[in-house]
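Why predict the complex rather than its parts? Because the way molecules touch one another can change local conformation, and only a joint prediction can capture that. The input here totals 936 residues.
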Amino acid sequence: MYGIEKDFSWELSIQGKVILFWVVLLLIFGWSWVNQTNWSFLFLNSYVVDGWVITWKVFFLFFIFFFLFFLKKEKSSFEWFTLVLLFQLATFVLLSASHFLVFYLSLELSSFILYLLVGSRRESLDSTEAGLKFFVLGSFGSILLLIGVVLCYGITGTLVFSELILWSEAGYSPPYLIALFFFLVGIFFKLGVAPFHFWIPDVYHGSSWSVVYFLVVISKIGMFGFFLRFVYTVCIIPFEWISFLFFWLAFFSLWIGTLGAVNQVNMKRLIGYSGISHMGFLMFGIGIGNGFGLMATLSYFWLYVSLNSLWILLLWWNQVFSLHKLKEFFPWFGFLLAVAMFSITGVPPLSGFFMKYYLWFGLIQIGNYLIGFLLVLFSVVAAFYYLRLIRMFFFSGWYWSGSISDSWREVGSLWFLIFVGYFSLFFFFFQKYVYVWLLEGIGV
Amino acid sequence: MSWQLLIGLNLFALLGISVIPSDKVKELKRFGLWMSVLLMGSSWLLYGRCEEALQEGLLFWLEEKSPFWFEMFGFDFQIGMDFLSYYLLWLSIFLIPVSILCSWESVVARWKEFLICLFLMEFFLINVFLVMDLFLFYCFFEAVLIPMFLIIGIWGSRERKIHAAYQFFLYTLLGSLFMLLGIIYIYLEKGTGNLLLLYETSFSVKEQIYLWILFFFSFAIKIPMVPVHLWLPEAHVEAPTAGSVLLAGILLKLGGYGMVRFLLPLFPIATLYFQPIVYVLSLIGIWYSSLTTIRQIDLKKIIAYSSVGHMNYVVLGLFSNSVEGVLGSYYMMISHGFVSSGLFLCIGILYDRYHSRNLFYYGGLVQLMPLYTTVLFFLTFANFGFPGTSSFVGEFLILLGLCGSNSVVFFIGGLGLLLSTVYNLWFLNRLSFGPLSSFLTANMDVNKRESLILILFLVLVFFFGLFPSRLIETVSWNVGALDYWLNDALFV
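Output of the joint prediction:
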């Protein structure tokens, strides 16, 4: 029966060692997060460590830590662990980067790992195609980004963010704006914001479930953390300009993501399109422009990460289990899937409602009713394809099944899912604290 | 210890059901039934609280401070009730044991999940009627979608159920998200969602008009009014009997409750401003749904479309700007809660026996099931408001209110009642009388379990039909206040 692994013991397994390593990291970062004393700018202001960065790193560690529990199901786990470790290094530098070159190098490192992972199923034609496409298009995105960096250097003569801030405050010469624009386009490319989203459906289609999860959740964290810090510190561009740009990007993303997902039969493509539409919501949050908007964006992003990890991991798990034909009824699966899907649809007592609620709150606060209405329409359409998962798994007699073995990996995976599920279920009760904490952290 | 007991019992029931293993169906059913009956009993405590408030001349019975768990989690929400919410709360608690009993044999699989859905729904419904806060009302108002969506989708009978569940979910979601925008606006403008504070404030005319549209759209979908009524027949037809009973019995009334509680008192000027268009929409709804009912051949669709007609009467009464009209609407809502859910039960009983809802297969049922036909006879008569039944009181009061308010609407709406008589008699006649249909075989008349529910319904129908004074006396105080607000707005 699946789940009885004889080849495993604490001493020998590389997985055990890696996980232990992560525990130590988590403790160190958690400690420095709680203490919050030694913030600093290192290496001539090119590497920043402050509360924001540490917070993002702790959350990143949390998600990647539990990702490791699921990794057992991959075949070549040795390569996986090496790559994931490297990816973590890249993300940590990325989150702390305060210099264009530091940023660019860490971004390229993380991108290369993603190219490798996407193309890692050598026997599959889809995977090879996806890897190639991802590589070509990703390089294209990187080049756009590099153009922005070069232009920036040519205009300002500096690559350090703390000096660029002075430039931003001094005035907005059109070349400087164009340089920032190119740079942002590169980032949008990596995040998958429409109209720079072309790579997403095909790449997701060709990847294995673990890579999809990696692309949707884990690779987004570092990128988005950097992006937010960059926008809110370096790009202190006039409010009209920023909201104009972001609202249009958001509109495109919502349009393409939502309508692309509606008739999608391939689950991985559906995940890709729904990711694009979530990026649209996030761009609206940034477009609000004030501190409240930042709070809404942050809460949206973290709830997006938790909910997406819940449903993608469940789907992945379901597939792994159904291969093994376990007959025992497994109620956790149904319960967690229902919570995840209703939550991401945005039904009130669950956490997915609050992520949209605060977005609406911000939009109405700045008097942007039209976009509020637009979001209503798009989220109703989005409800349609999220509910389809409920329909698939529940309405025609449930065929999902399985039980967990008592190996600590399976138990750990289940506990992670249960934790995230209950977080979503009871978010209603402590949402106020979360938002007060966020607002204090932002300093509104 | 009144509403706390109610919520505590409900949570205990949920916990108990999730602990009992799913293969012990008999224990699950009994536990669920007894818990729901216990809940029904304990709801009388709330009656006492409302009664006290009435004796003291207060509009609402209020909890002085927020419940401890709200405080613990940093909320400040108002809990309170009056008789307007009490009767609907009682109705929803009453319908849970009924729907457990009526599914006793017809639901064959997944009793555990079924009971969890039912008690979850009961939990949300209790909370909807308990909270006096816009935001919380919205939360629970929409949370009801989750269990109902699952009930329609999982325990429905045909393939069409997926379509129906989607329609139900998406229509309601669309409407209530628009209401959410309005609620957020009110929060930002007034800084609170507490109804008691909001009743003290007033909105400018322009604000009222826009907010009224947002709120009305949501409630109109829920009630439902005509252009957005399409989800209702679908959902009723595809849901299992218990689902239809709950939908017709209580979920439609959430729209009416929202109108009484929020739309009329918060936006009185806009209510008067939009009165003509609401009249027109309701009249179209009444005539259209009645004419559609006459040509339906699905038994459940007949009742579903007739519900649309009756709920549009409710809207007419609510907007008639008179105490009688609003009182009648409220009475109609309660009465419709018994009558139409009773009719759905009857159809469910028939469906359990013959596994068809097609009218053409039936005929001469009185020869096979005389007891059943007797009950059906009374309920059908109650459905078109025969004097002596509970609907009559409601319809009479609504027409009384309309008569004073707008005689044209009174006349057209009153003629609509004639159509209601036509389709109800037509339905009863084709089902029960005439030669015995060749498709029907000898089958058991109602058994003990079914007759228990049906007798309960008959008693309620006749009790509220013959002794309307108790309900009207208790409710009129609040309705009077509502009317006062409206008339106040007239002379602004």
